[in-house]
Design a protein that fits this description.
globular; 10 helices; 5-stranded parallel sheet; alpha/beta; about 290 residues
Length: about 290
């Protein structure tokens, strides 16, 4: 594993890394919108040594003016990561139940914090179990880590810069098409999307086997949405979680890189829609 680790690793690759001289720290980020909490899944079974991190309390700040899942304060994130045993000289692999949409938030936060050696388990816990890899119910007690959090190592959009990117580049909306169009809005007070944004549902990154599409297929998908190599691109979703999987998918596609990643609108729709002065588009129109 190098500082330019590919953003996705297979179950077989992860097993090999765990048996190597510098095994990665494992973060279990399983979570469901509307619950129940993923901690119950962790208790039933997890990758051996994996530490559970909760999206709502560990990987986000308190909901409020910044949205439903605002970025955590650097000091809070440092405490979480050190408690999980994250060290400056050790890689990290995060996983969730299957599609990587929540694990990508952990991946993005670590990269934002300046920890380059981080990846997501392709296919998540489901792929690990399907590969007949070992699981455990033991609750790990890792040695405290020493990682520092140097916030700002990934580009972040606010409402103004997200609106600007939708006009001057490509702003991808990772939500399901019906939420993008404004047909339904089960969570936030207004329905629709940021004017100029292009719908790129995060579910489109995943193949029929539950694993991520190959880089070439992802590149073809994003090219069809107007993404061009070297041109500015960013992503948002409902609250800045699944949009992180778009940032990851863009890097896996080769259209962006670890040195020049896509930007993330951290507050996302949950931040945009609460200001009545911000315009809202509906339907399939950009």
């Amino acid at each position: 594993m190098t500082a330019h680790l590919r953003p996705l690793v297979s179950a077989a690759e992860l097993a090999s890394l765990l048996a190597g001289p510098r095994p990665p720290v494992l973060l279990d980020a399983r979570w469901r919108l509307g619950g129940p909490p993923g901690r119950a899944d962790h208790a039933v079974g997890h990758l051996p040594g994996a530490v559970f991190v909760d999206l709502d309390t560990d990987l986000a700040g308190a909901p409020g003016a910044g949205g439903r899942h605002p970025l955590p304060e650097p000091d809070d994130l440092r405490r979480v990561l050190r408690a999980a045993g994250v060290r400056a000289d050790r890689p990290v692999v995060a996983y969730d139940a299957d599609n990587g949409s929540v694990a990508a938030r952990a991946w993005w936060l670590l990269r934002w914090a300046g920890h380059a050696e981080v990846a997501v388990l392709d296919g998540g816990y489901a792929a690990w179990v399907a590969d007949r890899r070992p699981v455990s119910t033991d609750q790990p007690q890792p040695e405290p880590g020493d990682v520092e959090v140097r916030a700002g190592n990934m580009p972040v959009l606010d409402a103004e810069s997200a609106a600007g990117l939708a006009r001057s580049g490509v702003l991808l909306d990772a939500r399901a098409p019906e939420r993008y169009r404004g047909d339904v809005e089960p969570i936030d007070p207004r329905a629709g999307h940021i004017p100029g944004a292009v719908n790129a549902p995060f579910a489109g990154h995943i193949g029929a086997d539950g694993r991520w599409l190959a880089g070439s297929a992802l590149a073809e998908r994003f090219a069809g949405l107007g993404v061009r190599d070297g041109e500015p691109v960013g992503a948002y979703c409902g609250s800045g979680v699944t949009a992180a999987s778009v940032v990851l998918a863009l890097e896996a596609s080769g259209l962006t890189s670890a040195r020049e990643p896509a930007a993330l609108y951290a507050g996302s729709w949950s931040h945009w829609c609460v200001d009545p002065a911000r315009p809202v588009a509906t339907g399939d129109e950009h």
